[in-house]
Amino acid sequence: MSESVQLDLSMVQRIETDLMEGKLTLEAVNNMDYHEFITAFCSVIEHGTLAAATVWSGRPFSSQLALHQAFVLFLSSLPPQSKLGVVRCYPDLAGKSAGEGGLTEESHSEHKAAGLLELSKREMEEMVSLNDSYKEKFSFPFVICARENKKEAIMKGTISRLENSVAEEVDNALAEISKIAYHRITNILHVNSGQNSRTGHL
User: Fold this and answer.
1) Which ranges of the chain does DSSP label H, i.e. alpha helix?
2) Where are the domains positioned within the chain?
3) What kind of fold does domain 86-181 have according to CATH?
4) What pLDDT shows up at residue 100?
5) pTM score
């Protein structure tokens, strides 16, 4: 890796400390350089270094909503095959990655919030079967905002969305990714309660 793109380890550690302590303000975000921003926001979209790199160019952001809308715009501006690529970066819900500890920190937290890490044997078998049926039809994983749904709603949602067309499901997945991004940004930013209402969507 060339010197120009190497991340300063102390910078990474400082940002991680700010994230853990809830000290990352919008003002601090707007003053971030390219590498700092990517370090802080590369997880807003799953494995989303390119998304964060693109959104950085839109600084300064007037609010959390404006920052979220910049990520939504990134998603909506992608060509069809790139949108599919983004969707395929998300893990199966309660899939092999979850069982083997292969989830990103954000996805693990979201799985836990939805109760997907505490499924009974029967529930796990049903979820795996639904995942397999969905992927067989659409060739990408079922994506839903786990922070806004519990396991029962997720299973029902999978069954319902199996009736849709591929085009409809790509749109649905991107809309859910937008919701996921909002919650991940909220986790990153320390903002006033009046700044973080969500209205942006794909």
Assistant:
1) 9-21, 26-30, 34-41, 49-56, 64-77, 80-88, 96-99, 105-113, 121-138, 151-161, 166-188
2) 8-77+182-192, 86-181
3) UraD-like (1.10.3330)
4) 53
5) 0.82
